[in-house]
Specification:
Helices cover about 35% and strands about 15% of the residues. It is α/β, with parallel strands linked by helices. The strands form 3 sheets. It has an 8-stranded parallel beta barrel with strand order 3-4-5-8-9-10-11-12, surrounded by 5 helices. Strands 1-2 form a two-stranded antiparallel ribbon. The two termini are about 25 Å apart. Bound molecules: flavin mononucleotide. The site of flavin mononucleotide has 25 residues, from β4, α10 and α12.
Length: about 375
């Protein structure tokens, strides 16, 4: 990187970002990444150290791996952390503390997997997969359609988790509304075939998500921001598009913003791809323009291969962030989430902000096997 670019990196990414009572000292966020290093759902000292290492390495905001809300069917592994119960809460308080000591802000990503839950899987083996209509993402019969009581229970579970996050010292929460998990299953026509108030047109399909947002908003103080992660793609359908046009995107975003979303996190695999037609705005750019809310972008920042390739066992070389800088200088979006590059190198943020790109460790798929 030239001196001039190094200076630009520092200037554009080093600006603090604030929303409600949360302040991130710079624009670099750690993307939420499931690591499966929390036996019995309890994040231990190693998990706290792992996040604290990224905060010490310059990350402004940590978004934790997805963590299950308190509902029997919420999860599908007993190595993924839960966000309920004394033991997990003690672990999470330790995580938040460790990150704060290194000057980072931290929010947990609250998650319910819906019908993607594997039958008979832990953490609650006999809990049936549940979703909007008892069909999988591809429309095959799977699990059970949620009753009104199920909906109320899950909405309450998200609200309880948000309140607990504030109590435990976190700086906000992110609701996992992306990638084909429960909240997203309601948004898609193919997996939501309900004929009640939660199904039908796109606005009705947004109702469940909006009710979760509103319940979380009511459960926390004014100082506590709500992030909402959304995506166009879903698991096993990486080229799918939830919204085909900016108008459809607006129909989804408006009820969510009205319900109380403070920041949208627009999940894409490659941040530089234009989302619609003849504008070069990416998804985070469009979401910001349409909703008027700050946004987080993500997808292959600093790497030359997308994250799906990591699951196929592939590494990625380090690339520069010039294009990213141009976009963030234009305020196309407000924060940049970094995934695999931060697994590979806990000091990615500091090295990037200091223009030391050449010192960055490249990502290798074997790095997913250990927690460092
Ligand atoms: C190992 C791994 C686990 C992930 N787990 C989650 C998750 O729990 N929640 C989520 O919203 N996204 C998850 N993602 C997606 C990332 O947050 C991110 O959007 C994706 O990796 C693209 O960013 P990158 O190209 O910088 O890695 C995961 C990605 C990876 C590689």
């Amino acid at each position: 990187m030239t001196d001039e670019n190094a200076h630009r990196a520092t200037a554009a990414l080093s600006r603090p970002f604030s929303v409600r009572g949360l302040t991130s000292r710079n624009r670099v966020a750690m993307a939420p990444m499931t690591r499966q290093f929390s036996p019995n759902g309890v994040p231990g000292r190693d998990v706290a150290d792992y996040y604290a290492r990224r905060a010490a390495g310059g990350v402004g905001l940590i978004i934790t791996e997805g963590t299950y809300v308190d509902h029997a069917s919420a999860g599908t592994s007993d190595r993924i952390p839960v966000f309920h119960g004394e033991d997990a809460f003690a672990g999470w308080a330790g995580v938040a503390d460790a990150v704060h000591r290194e000057g980072g802000a931290i929010i947990p990503q609250l998650w319910h997997v819906g019908v993607t839950r594997a039958e008979g899987a832990p953490p609650v083996a006999d809990a049936e997969p549940v979703g909007p209509s008892g069909v999988s993402l591809s429309g095959e019969p799977k699990g059970r359609a949620m009753t009104q009581k199920d909906l109320d229970d899950v909405i309450g579970a998200f609200a309880d988790a948000a309140a607990a996050a504030e109590r435990l010292g976190f700086d906000g929460v992110e609701l996992h509304g992306a990638h084909g998990y429960l909240i997203d299953q309601f948004l898609w026509e193919g997996s939501n075939r309900r004929t009640d108030a939660y199904g039908g047109g796109i606005v009705a399909r947004t109702r469940f998500a909006a009710e979760i947002v509103a319940a979380c908003r009511a459960a926390v103080s004014d100082a506590f921001p709500l992030f909402f992660r959304m995506s166009q793609w879903k698991m096993d359908a990486y080229e799918a598009k939830l919204a085909q046009t900016p108008e459809e995107l607006e129909a989804i975003l408006t009820p969510l913003a009205d319900a109380g979303v403070d920041v949208f996190h627009a999940s894409t695999r490659r941040y530089w791809l234009p989302e619609f037609g003849d504008s070069d705005l990416n998804l985070a750019g469009w979401v910001k323009k349409i909703s008027g809310r700050p946004t987080v972008t993500v997808g292959s920042v600093g790497l030359d291969g997308d994250f799906f390739s990591a699951f196929q066992g592939n590494g990625s070389s380090v690339t520069g962030v010039d294009q990213l800088l141009e976009r963030i200088e234009r305020d196309e979006f407000d924060m940049v989430a970094v995934g695999r590059a931060l697994i590979a190198d806990p000091e990615w943020a500091a090295k990037t902000l200091q223009g030391r790109t050449g010192d960055i460790t490249p990502f290798g798929a074997e790095m997913l096997k250990t927690l460092y």
